[in-house]
Amino acid sequence: MAERLRIEARSGDTVGRLGGDEFIVLLGGLSNAKDASPVAMNLLSQFAAAFSIDSRELMLSASIGIAIYPIDGDNPSDLLRNADAAMYYSKEQGRNTYSYFTTAMNKDVLRRLLLEEQMHGALDRGEFRVSYQPKVNVLSRNIIGFEALLRWRNPELGDVAPDEFIAIAEQTGLIVPLSEFVLTEAINKTAHWQNNYVPSFTIAVNLSPRQFRDPNLIAFITEAIKQSGISNDSLELEITEGVLLSGHAYIKEALIALNDMGVKIAMDDFGTGYSSLSYLRKYPFDVLKIDRIFISDITVDNADRDLVHALIAIARSLKLQVVAEGVETEEQLAFLAEHNCEIAQGYLFSKAITAEQITEILEAKKHL
Ligand code: C2E
Ligand code: MG
Ligand code: MG
Question: Which of 68, 101, 134 is a domain's end point?
């Protein structure tokens, strides 16, 4: 890689390796910012050909970020930070491309840094809470169980959405203790609700890809269930296709081990990613959750209606329980009932609420 980069750099330019897979190319004497563009394209062209290593052909890609002195920084650390932000932007664009730094990127980077900083110690400070969204039987509308959803309220940042902080927690590794917190809370609350209200309640907990690298995952779940006294099949673990994409053997092994224990495995957000039907066969799924973007349009968009109809049929023939996410209207619910979707979740019934609120509702129902 270093050799190829050096070939493309002009004489007088500097090519350096910052560490790991990061390189820096210093281009002196540009007459204007645009002149960096052909250099970047030439650098990228060096990745079109495979690398031969130990008689194997490897394809590599590169993502380039460009920061210009002095407008993007008049000192090395600012320039490096901003080039880095632009490089991340290129990665998000699908790699093998280059991007100039813009101030909007800077805002993203600053926000990220701020979140990372505030997240440090937030679990110990009690800033995280678990909230619960009821899942209901489509026909009877009775609550059959709950999905545990993590909430973060920080004194400085206010409420931060999980879509924003989960990704960062995954990168920093905080996801492991954070998830142990969610699992413990959710399982213990469910034990309480089963013992006092409805013994058949189930609890669904989301798992991130990173957690499957935690060798302690299964032991932790086993112990948490044992301590609480709920049965293994009361717990449902939701994973997205992202977990399976890497194809690592240990993920399949973990899913099979959990499934053998009786823990249920749900495919979350189905329809948004690759929606690979082979995954549904290859891994031990029990539940298919149809993503809310399809549900939101079933009463207005014919294509979505047909798609949801087909998904329900596929799930049923694979003997999977079907859950519709994001049900917001009576019309949507009627469609789902008509097409034999068993379980629904969404604002039509309830958003995610605190454990105390759930207990109040159950208590009120008990005295009806
Ligand atoms: P998800 O697992 O697909 O969770 C469902 C999301 O849809 C939740 O957003 C929920 O509040 C929202 N939702 C439910 N009903 C409706 C509806 O009728 N309309 C609309 N518009 N939205 C609805 P939330 O809580 O912001 O969570 C977002 C995502 O963050 C989750 O998506 C999940 O992937 C992730 N997440 C949340 N908690 C955890 C956690 O403890 N661990 C991990 N690994 N991920 C989590
Ligand atoms: Mg989920
Ligand atoms: Mg979902």
Answer: 101
Here the CATH number for the domain that contains residue 127 is 3.20.20.450
Nearest to 33 by CA among 82, 106, 77: 82
Dihedral sign for Cα atoms in the order 28, 30, 34, 38: negative
| Ligand 1 binding residues, C-beta < 6 A | 133, 149-150, 161-163, 166, 179, 182, 206-208, 238, 268-269, 292, 325-328, 345-347, 351-352
- CATH number, residue 22: 3.30.70.270
Q: What is the dihedral of CA 162, 167, 173, 175, to 10 degrees?
A: 30
Looking at the structure, do residues 63 and 126 belong to the same domain, yes or no? no
Nearest CA to ligand 1 atom 22: 326
Strands (E) across 96-189 are located at 97-100, 128-137, 143-154, 158-160
Dist CA 176 CA 180 (whole Å): 6
Contacts of 255 (CB under 8 A, 6+ apart): 239, 265, 283, 284
- Beta strand 343-344 with 321-324: parallel, antiparallel or unpaired? parallel
Residue closest to 297 by CA, chosen among 272, 271, 332, 270: 332
Which amino acid belongs to residue 332? Q
Could you tell me if 89 and 183 lie in one domain? no
**194-244 pLDDT, tens per residue?**
999 999 999 999 999 888 888 899 999 999 999 999 999 999 999 998 888
In the chain, how many domains are there?
2
Q: What is the model's pTM?
A: 0.82
pLDDT tens-digit series, residues 181-200: 999 999 999 999 999 999 99
Q: Whole domain around residue 303: which residue ranges?
A: 117-366
